[in-house]
Amino acid sequence: MTLLPQELIRLKRDGQALPDDALEAFIAGLTDGRVTEGQAAAFAMAVFFRGLSLPERVALTRAMTRSGTVLTWDLPGPVLDKHSTGGVGDTVSLPLAAMVAACGGYVPMISGRGLGHTGGTLDKLDSIPGYTTAPDVDLFRRVTREVGCAVIGQTPDLAPADRRLYAIRDVTGTVESLDLITASILSKKLAAGLQGLVMDVKAGSGAFMARTEEARGLAESLVTVANGASLPTRALLTDMDQPLASAAGNAVEVTYALDYLAGRRREPRFHAVTVALGAEMLVLGGLSPSLAEATARLEDSLTSGRAAEVFSRMVTALGGPADLIAAPERHLPRAAVVRAISAPRAGRVAAVATRDLGVAVIGLGGGRTRPQDAIDHAVGLTDLAALGDEVGPERPLAIVHARSEADAARAEAAVVAAYRIGGDAAPAREAILERVG
After folding, report:
1. Annotated catalytic residue within 81, 123, 126, 239
2. What is the pTM of this model?
3. What pathway, per the record (predicted)?
4. Distance between terminal CA atoms of the chain?
5. Residue 246 is among the residues annotated as catalytic for this protein
6. The one catalytic residue among 12, 113, 163, 189
7. Strand partners, 381
């Protein structure tokens, strides 16, 4: 007999194992509306505190995958993707999809909106005028085939149960659940019909899993569950003790990604993570025999301009402006108030409360506190100081982009509080911490 939603919640609340068919029925109810938002929130909280066993994780992931359409592909190259567990200034997906496509891969990348203090790729893309972030499946397939990549949001057909649970987790304090993160990420990737997946699992002050040990546990969970579901997967642990890029927001991160593709700015840490993930994707897909050869091909996709060309074609095919890379200032929204945030004193940046910078962007209107909240795509932070930078009269902590002076003042206070200037500091970690799988 199928368990009622409240009975399934009670079982997990009390630390008991959930039968596969009960999870299947609960996820079906989440999809068709028979499970209420309150019940979904209670389920998420019960899982957060009690956890799921590996068999439960696999069952939940499979149920969420089967809640909608599962794509199949017939393409002349491997179908590959990357996913990040999220951080501040992590806009890697935008250039990476185009770089891998320029090297012969096909990247149907289904992205999410902002979750907790982190920015979402889909919210960033929504700042591009005309860009269709929710195309129908036929358009998604066509752009992937013709261009080589399509970065979109979840369509109504793909893992719809995850879309609903994702929004509820964002506002109920259950974002950090290893089990729910695993099922959320992998249900979308399995539904996309991938042949290879590389995970970017963040660790540090701006990551959901702040401790490296916790991040490693998530990486191992993702790799184990994905490979168990016949999706070849590897993971990299990467550092989030400081923003990955010097920009945090939506339009400002799109601008950063465009500058990266065009060669106007390539910061070393961002570049290292982007190329390392891409190299893993090319090797996993059989497009390169070694990480060294894959790295060289990715570097060439940038210097030759092929990656920028692929990205421009994707934007145009999905309804955006053809000259976005050449002239982002013509198209991306800009904030009314733009000003520097001075350091409280001169000195070297010793530590960054990276999560607090993400929260500051939300406070500006660049993220959500409720699922239905609108986002101001123009606001954010740029020129963020990195660990070890000398700050003072000639080098501010950041530049704030706000819709009002009052918003800018609040963000300034938050940014100043997030930085520790001077004193003893541990050396900044390498951008790539370790490899899993």
Report:
1. 81
2. 0.89
3. Pyrimidine metabolism; dTMP biosynthesis via salvage pathway; dTMP from thymine: step 1/2
4. 39
5. no
6. 189
7. 248, 400
